Amino acid sequence: MPRKSKEKQLIEENENLRARLEELEETLRAIQSGEVDALVVSGEQGEQVFTLKDAGQPYRVLMETMNEGAVTLAADGTVLYSNLRFASMLRMPLDKIIGLSIRLHVVKEELPALDLLLDKCLNAACKGEVRLISGDKALPVQLSFSPVLSDGMHCAVVVITDLTEQKRIEGALLRASKELEDRVQERTADVLASEGRFQALYASMNEGLAIHDIVYEDGKAIDYIITEVNPAFEKITGITRTAAIGKRASEIYETREVPYLDIYAKVTSTGEPTVFETYFPPMEKHFMISAFSPGRGKFATVFQDMTERKKAEEALAAAHRQIKSLINNTPAIVYAFDLEERFLLANTAVAELFHTTPEQMIGKRRHEFMPKEDADWHEANDRKVFEAGKALEFEECSQLLGRSITWLTTKFPLHDAQGNIRAVAGISTDITARKQAEQELERMGNLLAEGQRVAHIGSFEYVAATRTTVWSEEEYRIYGLDPAGPAPAYDVMLAKCIHPDDAALLHQTFSDAMQSSSVYELEHRIVWPDGSVRWVYDRALPYFDDSGKLLRYVGATLDITERKLAEAALRANQEDLDRAQAVGNIGSWRLDVQRNVLMWSEENHRIFGVPKGTPMSYETFLSIVHPDDREYVDTKWKAVIAGENYDIEHRIVVDGKTKWVREKAYLEFDKNGKLLGGFGITQDITDRKQAEEELRKLTEDLKRSNGDLQQFARFASHDLQAPLRTIEGFVKLLIRRYQGKLDEKADELLGYISEGTREMRTLVQDLLEFSRVETSAVKMKPVDTALRLADALSYLKTEIEEKGAVVTHTEPMPTVISDHTLMLRLFQNLIGNAIKYHGAKPPRIQVSAQRKDDEWVFSVKDNGIGIDPAHHGRIFEMFQRLHGKSEIPGTGLGLAICKRMVERQGGRIWVESEPGRGSMFFFTVPVQREEQA
Amino acid sequence: MTVYRTKPLSVLLVEDSSADVFLISETLSDSTIPTKVQVAKDAAEALVLLGRYGNAGRYMPDLILLDLNLPVMDGFSFLGEIRNHDHLKEIPVFILSSSSTFADMTRAHSLGVKGYFVKPLDLNEFEAEIRKHFKDEQFA
To answer: How many CB atoms are closer than 10 A to CB B81?
Structure first.
């Protein structure tokens, strides 16, 4: 190789140069040390012999002719002598050198080195290398100083050797040796790497490796010793390296005969490698062993554990048998055609179909077994597979024995080892029944969809593997989406279809359900694309594969918006009811007899002072009832069960306080009359009871005071009136007997007494009448007001005649339900007043009666002095008089009595009047029910 | 035919108040119709006088002037009592009461009284009523 020869050449040259240099140095040394007497110098002019002893001249000759420069220096370095060679080295004329310091010719940087040499050289010979200035170049030289005594002066002789060539050679040598070194290093690295690789390979190879030395005895191989093994050996054989190395095979394997000794001995002796498969009983393993001999008396084995492969082969063979059996026993028909469409393979099912045997079918075309039309179609499908170069699925039909069979066929190409298609195989399954089932399924599916549409129930399926959902048509409608669109992915659905407030809840609930493999169930809101919010109820069940892995959730969705609205309304109603009950202090309860559940409304709990949530029973209730009322309540409640009414009032004790409640129950029966339960109300009537009690007391007080009043009235009428009348009688007697018989003064006094007693009598009579209106029984019956009016007028006959009054009335006067006396008195008093308070003109009095709604309005109108409206309210009060007694006599009780009388029969009385314009008194009598009818 | 009465009109005054007895007696003494007044201070005494409990010494007045407000047995009960006796029920009864109530008047009339005077007795009224009742008789 070129590189190698160059390298060799360089080494040789280097060696030559070194040899020459050494030779020269040796010569020079010899000369200098005086060991040499004569010098033979070989030059271009031939060999010249120089004698050195006493040879001043000859030295010069030598110095002038020698190849080195030579100079003689003074102690200060001044050049005393120089040969031409030195001048040519410096490329300067001699005269510019001699007499001047040598220091001028040395490169500035190396002057210190030179000075050192100069110091030294006067005493002893010395050497040094410096660079001289040679024109514009630096010239490497060696300076060899030798001290001499010339003419008694210390001088130095210096030989200057041009080192340019030497330096060049040295450089080349250096480069060469460097290169050599690099090469050596490279090689070393290669070797190291190669050894490393080998060791790595050796260590990592799957095959076991062992190196052995054959043991000979009498030139015959009797055993072998293991000298090296790799890790795989240890692993495969189970024998550690330490246990193996240095042992004999017979020891290690513990066999009667040394394993495969003959084979290994032959390999070792002939050097021919061999490979063999064997079953090695001690390890119960199959091995494939390669043996070769790496050197004299040695052999190596590389072996593989074939046990698994053997098993696999056997399994393969078994599988092959099984597949064959499978093919022949499957109800599907399995077949293969060569490129000429002839049967290559047909399983039993195919043969049975055509009532023949598989063997008879091989090599024949389909046409021999089925109608041409079908055969052509099926062949066309074969060609499609051939062209596509991959498996294809077809639905094929065959008309066989008058029956149409639908096949689901998978056809696939069969390749040879080179990858070329050699045949088309097919597997066909009779899906005639499945086809029909599919149609039925589709029909059922439609029916389901229709059912869901009608019921407004959607269904969905969540496929765990893909996180996708499949929706029924109705599910889309529930979500307000187009059933033709794609089902939204789970995440999209969460983001877009579920109400933002419920999305996290749904995800959590569903995740939890998946986590625990439990039922997923949730009521949540959804948002339609138009933004409207609806409520749905989801319920889904998980389905798992055989290993318990979640496959999917299948569930239903129900639109419960209406129910939710109804619930909200119901809740609102319940709240309204609770509030109403709280305001009305009315609680309610409901008893479900069959489930034995007693439920109380909030107010009921409050009334009974039982916190909500307390378990309720009839006994709980009874324990709150006042001890004195318990038996009564219990009896009443038991009577209810027997069919009696339950509307009772009783006491209860809440927080130590006694309260009154009214309870009323309504029983509920089914249509067969069986008791279902009851509904009841509890009214807190504590306040009412207290009010009643107060009222009762007040009434008693009132009755007592009324009684006192009646006593007084009786006293007034009988006990007070009787003596009064007696007095009056005596006064009359006195007047009759003595008037005009005594003096005038006495007559006047009699007049006052008479007047006073009459006034008092009127007052007592009016008071009596007033009290009698209150106390006497009123007999309400039909009263002909025309007759009563006539009676009144007859009582007033005297006054009417006296004042020339004219009393008229409307016709006809009605018959009303009232009391005879009351009506008579009313007319009498009001007409009497009208006459009494007459004006300047004779009294004109008009009595009227008019039906207004459900009452009769009677009026008495006069043309008298009238009443200031300021007094209209006062005149109906007791003892209120507007006129002095001397003007118009009266007790101030007349209108008060009228008011009492009107009110006793449920009417009202009022006046419309202006002073000087007459008065009109009105009073009403209610129209009674029987009268209305 | 007019009968001239020679004897004074005998009057049984049933009155418990002695003041009233005095007043009524005095008033009647001023009357143009002569009267002879026999007083019973209560109903029981009157009935004894009238022979309610036997016929011996029977006293038959021309008329009875009866107060209603009497102790023990009131005027109305007395009226009922004499109505049950044939020989007594023919005696004209006139009420002289301090009560002027419509109810008392009505009740008295329903029990067959011949007249009703409200105390104090007005002499003119009394005479008019008596003459009206005894219209066939001529008083002295």
So the answer is: 17
Structure confidence at residue A844 (pLDDT): 93
ipTM above 0.85? no
A726–B69: do the CB atoms touch at under 8 Å? no
> Residue A172 above 80 pLDDT?
no
Q: Is the pLDDT of residue A884 over 70?
A: no
| Helix/strand/coil (H/E/C) assignment for every residue in A528-545 | CCCCCEEEEEEEEEEEEC
Coil vs helix vs strand at A713 = helix
Q: How far apart are CA B55 and CA B61, in angstroms?
A: 14
pLDDT at residue A38 is higher than 80: no
Q: What is the pTM of this model?
A: 0.36
The CA distance from B126 to the nearest CA of chain A, in Å, is 13
A137, A162, A877, A883, A888 from A913: Cα distances, Å = 161, 171, 17, 16, 19
Cα-Cα-Cα-Cα torsion B119, B123, B129, B131, nearest 10 degrees, comes to 160
Which residue in B23, B99, B123 is closest to A726 by CB distance?
B23
Nearest by CB to B27, which of A725, A729, A768?
A729
- In single-letter form, the type of residue at position A773 comes to V
- CB within 8 Å: B101 and A737: no
Instruction: Provide the H-helix boundaries in A247-342.
Output: 249-253, 261-270, 307-329
Cβ-Cβ contacts under 8 Å, B118 against chain A: 725
With CA atoms as reference, the chain B residue closest to A822 would be: B102
Instruction: Work out the pLDDT band at B38, boundaries 50, 70, 90.
Output: very high
Q: Are A726 and B17 inside 8 Å of each other by CB?
A: yes
Average pLDDT over residues A548-558: 88
Residues in chain B with CB shorter than 8 Å from the CB of A776 are 103
Residue A17 scores a pLDDT above 90: no
Q: How far is A718 from chain B (nearest CA, A)?
A: 7
Using DSSP's 3-state secondary structure scheme, residue A84 falls into helix
Contact present, A299 and A210 (Cβ < 8 Å): no
Q: Specify the pLDDT at position A887.
A: 64
Contact B20 A726 (CB under 8 A): yes
